[in-house]
Design brief:
Layout lengths: L28 H29 L5 H7 L3 H15 L10 H23 L1 E7 L2 E7 L8 E3 L1 E2 L2 E2 L6 E3 L5 H24 L11
Antiparallel strand pairs: 1-2, 3-6, 4-5
Helix pairs in contact: 1-2, 1-4, 1-5, 3-4, 4-5
Length: 204
C-alpha cells in the first residue's frame, strides 16, 4: 500500500534527516542491496519529473536534457530556481502554482543528500553477539561522513578513532524510497499544472 507522506514547508527540515546510528542491522546483505536499488531507481524516476518541469519552464527544445547534464544537485536547484523566476515574470503565468513548485524544488535539494548516501555508501557486515548484522555505512575514505574525536588528547588518523554518525538498515532505506515516491507525486502535480512543453515561450 502506498504510504501517504505529506510534503510540506513544515517538514522540509525534518523529513530528510538521516537516521542516527543505532538501529539493528539485517542478517542478509541482499535485502540491503535490494533496498538501495529501489531507492536509487525511485529517485531517478522522481528527478526525471523535475527535469520535465524544467523543460516546461524553459522555452528551449532540449532544456530537459540540458538540465540532466548538470551533475551537481545544488546547481540543478539553482538552475531551476532561475528558470522559475523568469517564467513567473511573464504576465500570463499562473502564479497560484509558484509556491508549490518552490516547495518541490527545496525538497529535492534536501532529499538529494540521502540519495547521495545510497549512491556512495557501502554495505558492511559484522558479527554482533554471534549473529551477522549488515548495514549501509560510509566507507573509511568518506571522511565527510565520519565524526573525528580525540584519543589521548590527540587527533588520530586511525579509523578506529572515528565514530560513524549515521547508518541505514534496509527498512530505513525503504522509508526514504517511500518519501522519494511521495516527492515524485508532488512534482507530477506541479508538472500537470504547467503549460505543455514548448508553450512556455508563448506565455507573455
Amino acid at each position: 500500500m502506498l504510504k501517504q507522506i505529506p510534503i510540506s514547508r513544515a517538514n522540509l527540515l525534518t523529513l530528510w534527516i538521516a537516521p542516527a546510528a543505532g538501529q539493528r542491522g539485517d542478517p542478509d546483505p541482499t535485502v540491503l542491496y535490494a533496498a538501495v536499488g529501489r531507492a536509487l531507481t525511485t529517485w531517478e524516476s522522481a528527478e526525471d519529473v523535475l527535469a520535465s518541469i524544467y523543460g516546461r519552464l524553459v522555452p528551449e527544445k532540449y532544456a530537459k536534457y540540458r538540465f540532466g547534464q548538470e551533475t551537481s544537485h545544488s546547481r540543478r536547484s539553482q538552475n531551476i530556481k532561475r528558470a522559475t523566476d523568469t517564467f513567473f515574470t511573464n504576465e500570463g503565468a499562473d502564479q497560484s502554482i509558484r509556491s508549490g513548485l518552490s516547495l518541490v524544488i527545496d525538497h529535492f535539494l534536501a532529499a538529494s543528500k540521502r540519495r547521495n548516501d545510497f549512491a556512495h555508501w557501502v554495505v558492511q557486515c559484522f558479527a554482533v553477539g554471534g549473529e551477522q548484522q549488515c548495514l549501509l555505512m560510509p566507507s573509511e575514505s568518506n571522511s565527510r561522513k565520519l565524526e573525528e574525536f580525540l584519543v589521548d588528547g590527540k587527533n588520530s588518523a586511525d579509523f578506529g578513532a572515528y565514530k560513524i554518525s549515521n547508518w541505514y538498515s534496509a527498512s530505513t532505506i525503504d522509508d526514504f524510497s517511500d518519501k522519494f515516491d511521495a516527492l515524485k507525486n508532488c512534482a507530477i502535480w506541479v508538472l500537470n499544472k504547467l503549460p505543455p512543453e514548448g508553450a512556455a515561450e508563448s506565455v507573455v
